[in-house]
Design goal:
By secondary structure, the chain is α/β, with parallel strands linked by helices. It has 2 domains: 137 residues, 3-Layer(aba) Sandwich (Rossmann fold); 92 residues, LytTr DNA-binding domain (OB fold (Dihydrolipoamide Acetyltransferase, E2P)), CATH 2.40.50. It is built from 7 helices and 15 strands. A hairpin with a 4-residue loop joins strand 14 and strand 15. The longest helix is centred in the middle third of the chain and has 22 residues. The chain is elongated, with a radius of gyration of 20 Å.
Length: 259
Amino acid sequence: MTIRAIIADDEPLMRRSIRRLLKTHPSVEVQAECCDGPSAVKAIVKYDADVIFLDVQMPGFDGMQVVSEIGLDRMPLTVFVTAHAQYAVRAFEGRAVDYLLKPFGQARFDETLSRVESRLAVEALVASPSRKVIPTATEKLEYLEWIPVSNKGRVVPRKVTDVDWMQAEKNNVLLHVGDRIEVVRRTLNSLAEVLNPRQFLRIHRSTIVNVDRIAEIQPWQNGYHMVELQSGQMLRMSRYQHDSARLLMGRGKQKKPGF
């Protein structure tokens, strides 16, 4: 699979660095290099790119303004590049797969590109559900393992399996981790796309739960069910999700009470 890429950074040295790191990935074809926001917008409009390596701070307008000019639905997958950690969480407002904090090396870059390949493979499968997608060695499907959250002005990586459940809050997601609540500036829909569906179950349009945290599922009223977590937290389940929950909970896991 050929991956079409755009590099947008105002620093020539960084653009050359990204090209150098891409040499170990012959499947990636660089369609354009841009040195400011306006030229990045033109390149996105002109080329049908799969991914853009987008600097957060550039002349003309910044990376987030590029996203605003193009629109989320028309953006290619985005890898934000920044020298400032405080921009990392904000970067995930866009259709971001990852962010690279300058300076970064080959290992960190390879990890990012692996996420890009995985997301493209998943999107291809969703777009053509009747076509079986068999990942190659470099296209191994991977799901989100870490979520960057803001904590007292710092960006802290949170291991996704530590999260008990996730709650939509406008354009943010509230992560419930034990007795703590952490905020991710990202929509629940975009997060659901990159979570392992065998580990995380969407029980409601505004709620995703970690299957390992479910104690039982109890019948409720009008065809609805309540999900009780091991912490005692009770969450309402959409009436359409119960059968999916039963299948998931019985697949490779010990059957929970209440089923």
